[in-house]
Structure formats: C-alpha cells, structure tokens
Amino acid sequence: MLEEVAVTRYITPLREGGSLPGLVEGDDLGAYVLKFAGAGQGRKTLVAEVVCGELARRLGLRTPRLVTLALDPVLGLGEPEQQVQDLLRASGGSNLGMDFRSGALGFDPLAFPVSREEAGRIVWFDALVNNVDRSWRNPNLLMSHGELWLIDHGATLIWHHNWPGADASAARPYDASEHALARFAPDLAGAAAELAPRVTEDLLAEVTAEIPDAWLADEPGFATPDELRRAYARPLLARANDIHARVRGIEDHR
C-alpha cells in the first residue's frame, strides 16, 4: 500500500488542475500536491492516478512519488475561498498526494526537444491507459532538471466508469493525433517491444495492490476490493499486447 502521510499545513490552492488541487505540507516535512477525495470527479480519479502512476514508475517512466494524505478539514478553515473550504470539508480522511517538484516547468513541445524513443514510450503508455488528457493544449508533462515527468492521470482508464462495457471500451484504438508528443515521430514499435512484455499479471497485481481498500469499497457488481483490483488489471493486460498497432494519428506528424 502507498505510504500514509498526515497533512500538517494547507498552503495554497493550485490553479493548474481542473479539480483545484492544493499544495500542502506533510508530517514528514515534504511538500505534496493534494488531490481531493471529495472533488467532483470522485474517488475513481484517485484510483486512476494510483494505477497509472505506479504502473508508469515500474515501467521506468518518471512520475512523482505517490502517497495517501490524511487530511483534517479543520486545517483549511482560514482559507478565504468558499470552493476550497467546500473541498476540504468533503475530503476529511484519506486523499491522494504526489511529491511537489519545486522549480519544474510546464512542458512546451515547441521549446523542449524529445527523442523518438522517449516520445514512443510515453505515447505507448498513454495508449495503454487510454489517456485523453496529454494533448498539446494541456500536456500534463513537466520538465525538471532536464528530464520529462508525467503528471495528472485522472482522465484515464475510462472503462472504469462503466464496468459492464469495460472490455469493449478497452478494445478501442487510441487517437494520438493531438498528443503533446505526436510531432516527435514516436517510436511505438520500439516502445512496445521494450514495455509490453513487462506488463504481466504479477506486475499489475503489484500495482493494483497499492490502491487503498477504502477507494474500492461499495463498487456495484463487485463483492470485494480484490475483485475490483482484478477488474482494473484485465483490460490493461489485454491492451498491452497490441495497442501499439491501434494508435491512430501519429503518421500525420511524420
């Protein structure tokens, strides 16, 4: 399971995220970006962040360390914005945190070169998890110390919003025509040869084990959190086999 950190100070809201994440300090003195469990997207957004963040890290892609953040809503009572106070009141208990990378710059595809190999690995990963939120308009990529980091994976795994149609949804191709890295002619075949064999049942079981039970409880159609964990793993395992051949739109940028 993810390490648990207690929030000791709510610092400020971050305007970059659609769900208004916050910058907080933990009892380990670390700074974290807090994703609220009480935000409108709900706990499934947090589950997607965990599955994708932990899978990316195990595949060798750079993504900030994830933790669970125990939040006492009282910490934000001095926050003047009503929207933030509402989020704090709705999010007492376990939330998601990611290491705050101070000084990181938002990725600009016109300013930072990316190799075909690295672009291929990232586009392949996004195709695997069906990330619809890595466009040139909103890359959700950071440049930190000359390295590319992946952030914000809440808009992935869209099949978990309709489990009866999950298999059909996961079988669909991936449209990469507006992907932030499409212009770098991503080497998808090379990425698939390197990464697909590593997406195994054991790896996915390890990844999904990181999801807190509380975020999986009471899902209709599933008797236990572990049953739901296996449901998260199945589409990814099937998709890894051939998703590189079903990516659309890349050829338009070569």
What do you see in this structure?
- The protein is α+β, with helices and mostly antiparallel strands and 254 residues long.
- It has two domains: 4-99; 105-253, no CATH class.
- Helices cover 30% and strands 19% of the residues.
- It has seven helices and ten strands.
- The strands form three sheets. A five-stranded mixed β-barrel has the order 1-2-3-5-4.
- A hairpin with a 4-residue loop joins strand 2 and strand 3.
- Helix 1 (43-58) packs across helix 6, helix 3 (116-129) packs across helix 5 (188-195) and helix 6 (201-208) packs across helix 7 (225-240).
- The longest helix has 16 residues, at 43-58.
- The model has no long low-confidence stretch (mean pLDDT 93).
Topology:
Elements lengths: L3 E10 L8 E5 L4 E5 L7 H16 L7 E6 L10 H9 L2 E7 L5 E2 L9 H14 L11 E4 L2 E4 L15 H5 L3 E2 L12 H8 L5 H8 L16 H16 L6 E2 L6
Parallel strand pairs: 1-4, 9-10
Antiparallel strand pairs: 1-2, 2-3, 3-5, 4-5, 6-7, 7-8
Helix pairs in contact: 1-6, 3-5, 6-7
Task: Report a brief summary of the structure.
This protein has helices spanning 43-58, 82-90, 116-129, 166-170, 188-195, 201-208, 225-240; strands spanning 4-13, 22-26, 31-35, 66-71, 93-99, 105-106, 141-144, 147-150, 174-175, 247-248.
